[in-house]
Amino acid sequence: MLLAGCQGPQSALAPAGPAAQAAAWLWWGMLGWFALVWAAVLGLWLYALVRRPPDCDEARAKRLGRRWIVAGGLLLPGFSILALLVFGIPQGLCMLPLPREGEAPLRIEVIGHQWWWEVSYPQSGVVTANRLALPVGRPVDLELTSADVIHSFWVPSLAGKLDMLPGRRLTLRLVAGRAGVYRGQCAEFCGAQHARMALSVEALVPEEFERWQAARQVAPPVPAEHAAAVAAFRPYCGQCHRVAGVSPGGRGPDLTDVGSRPSLGAGTLAMGEGAMRRWLGEHQRLKPHNGMPRHDALPAGTLDAIAAWLESLGP
Ligand code: HEC
Ligand SMILES: [Cu+2]
């Protein structure tokens, strides 16, 4: 159980990129050094318990005591903090969006909402939600902000965490070193469903990333079999949800590629047979107080049709 945090898709100790690697080294260094300090203090404490009181005059005892305080209370912590700075500052530099030579970093905007993530790719115009695809090996500048309260962006396997502040834009630079799926989680308490605000991060090899993006750049026409669903969706859902070529949206996650998402409700419900219909019927039970109203007034058949259409969206 003690080692449970050392592996898995959401562990700072299973780094998959240089920024996370730096944080992991720092963590192990701190663990090692401070374990040594702790063991030494324990040793001294045990020694003090068992030894006989020294047989010397009071002035000398005071002098000895002072020496311990200066060495153990000032020099040792001073040295430890200095060592931490000497190692920590260069490690921290590799997380900053400093100007660099060579290929320009890919810009991706991530906006925190209660309780979901809006993700957009300004260069291609692709917008998605609750999932972030990135190319492996290329630096990525994530421009972070919030639409409501303070959130915090944290994908422990890829980088350190950075707050998302309403009205401000902060940039987090990261490079994914290995292809894979990592898990991110909002790391700043942001309300009732803060715990159900997960982000699925897919690091793809560059060609696959280009395909991922290109497949989302063109909105295919709506097939005739889904025309009734779209007609119901527009007035009931379209003012909140954008679907490219169908509705403008504005307050909820973009649904243009929703059928290809690994989960619904920012990690609340794994995508699969019947998941979409279940979300439409029970989302306030699955994720209480989330920003989407109940749709009890809509006939079940209409929700069935909308769910079937939404499932078909996305490449
Ligand atoms: C008042 C705005 C609003 C309306 C109207 C609305 N929704 Fe939503 N919807 C949201 C918000 C906000 C979320 C995000 C909830 C969360 O995860 O916290 C959401 C989430 C969703 C999701 C999950 C998306 C994802 O990737 O996790 C689906 C699917 C969805 N809505 C479909 C619909 C359908 C279908 C309708 C119409 C019947 C509808 N919504 C009406 C605001 C709205
Ligand atoms: Cu949060």
Automatic annotation (TrEMBL):
<keyword id="KW-0408">Iron</keyword>
<dbReference type="InterPro" id="IPR045187">
    <property type="entry name" value="CcO_II"/>
</dbReference>
<protein>
    <recommendedName>
        <fullName>Cytochrome aa3 subunit 2</fullName>
    </recommendedName>
</protein>
<feature type="domain" description="Cytochrome c">
    <location>
        <begin position="224"/>
        <end position="314"/>
    </location>
</feature>
<dbReference type="Pfam" id="PF00116">
    <property type="entry name" value="COX2"/>
</dbReference>
<keyword id="KW-0472">Membrane</keyword>
<dbReference type="Pfam" id="PF00034">
    <property type="entry name" value="Cytochrom_C"/>
</dbReference>
<keyword id="KW-0479">Metal-binding</keyword>
<comment type="function">
    <text>Subunits I and II form the functional core of the enzyme complex. Electrons originating in cytochrome c are transferred via heme a and Cu(A) to the binuclear center formed by heme a3 and Cu(B).</text>
</comment>
<keyword id="KW-0679">Respiratory chain</keyword>
<dbReference type="InterPro" id="IPR036909">
    <property type="entry name" value="Cyt_c-like_dom_sf"/>
</dbReference>
<dbReference type="InterPro" id="IPR002429">
    <property type="entry name" value="CcO_II-like_C"/>
</dbReference>
<keyword id="KW-0249">Electron transport</keyword>
<keyword id="KW-1133">Transmembrane helix</keyword>
<keyword id="KW-0186">Copper</keyword>
<dbReference type="InterPro" id="IPR009056">
    <property type="entry name" value="Cyt_c-like_dom"/>
</dbReference>
<dbReference type="InterPro" id="IPR014222">
    <property type="entry name" value="Cyt_c_oxidase_su2"/>
</dbReference>
<dbReference type="InterPro" id="IPR034236">
    <property type="entry name" value="CuRO_CcO_Caa3_II"/>
</dbReference>
<feature type="domain" description="Cytochrome oxidase subunit II copper A binding">
    <location>
        <begin position="103"/>
        <end position="215"/>
    </location>
</feature>
<feature type="transmembrane region" description="Helical">
    <location>
        <begin position="68"/>
        <end position="89"/>
    </location>
</feature>
<feature type="transmembrane region" description="Helical">
    <location>
        <begin position="25"/>
        <end position="47"/>
    </location>
</feature>
<dbReference type="InterPro" id="IPR008972">
    <property type="entry name" value="Cupredoxin"/>
</dbReference>
<dbReference type="InterPro" id="IPR001505">
    <property type="entry name" value="Copper_CuA"/>
</dbReference>
<keyword id="KW-0812">Transmembrane</keyword>
<keyword id="KW-0349">Heme</keyword>
<keyword id="KW-0813">Transport</keyword>
<comment type="similarity">
    <text>Belongs to the cytochrome c oxidase subunit 2 family.</text>
</comment>
